[in-house]
């Protein structure tokens, strides 16, 4: 199992990659942005599958609770994506702006979720450190 500091470094590295991709996408043409989106989706799916595999191995109550939270989140995200996809087919400016607004709202909601997840991860890591220290004090 990785140390908490290693997991935080992994999170920091992942955030740096996301920041770089977003900055690059803002400079690219539309077709290149679509390729970036597909790459990001593939990377995210791979990380999710890896997490799910690890969660199955550990089968902890915390892992189950986090899985339930993630499942609910993904269900809501899929509803938003379905709405966005429906509107994506529209060609006029009003609907295109609405789609852009929805996409921006989705991005903002996803970032908010990530911030909450980071907050939860920080608390979980601090509680894990405290629990380990207590366990070692009993040994």
Q: What attributes does this structure have?
A:
91% helix; mainly alpha; 139 residues; elongated
What share of residues is helical? over 70%
Shape: elongated
Total helix count? 4
Q: What is the succession of H and E elements?
A: HHHH
In oligomeric terms, what are we looking at? single chain
Could you give a short account of the major beta sheet? Answer: none
Fraction of residues in β-strands: under 5%
Count of distinct structural domains: 2
Number of strands: 0
Q: Measured on Cα atoms, how large is the radius of gyration?
A: 19 Å
Alpha-beta content class:
mainly alpha
Low-confidence stretches: none
Mean pLDDT: 79
Distance between the termini: 21 Å
């Amino acid at each position: 199992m990785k140390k908490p500091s290693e997991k935080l470094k992994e999170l920091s590295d992942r955030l740096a990659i996301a920041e770089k991709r977003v900055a690059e996408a803002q400079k690219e043409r539309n077709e290149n942005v679509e390729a970036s989106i597909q790459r990001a989706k593939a990377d995210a799916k791979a990380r999710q599958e890896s997490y799910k595999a690890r969660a199955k191995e550990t089968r902890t109550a915390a892992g189950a609770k986090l899985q339930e939270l993630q499942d609910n989140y993904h269900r809501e995200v899929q509803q938003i994506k379905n709405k966005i996809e429906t509107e994506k087919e529209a060609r006029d400016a009003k609907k295109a702006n609405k789609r852009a607004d929805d996409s921006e709202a989705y991005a903002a909601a996803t970032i908010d979720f990530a911030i909450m997840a980071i907050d939860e991860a920080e608390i979980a890591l601090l509680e894990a450190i405290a629990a380990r220290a207590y366990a070692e004090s009993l040994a």
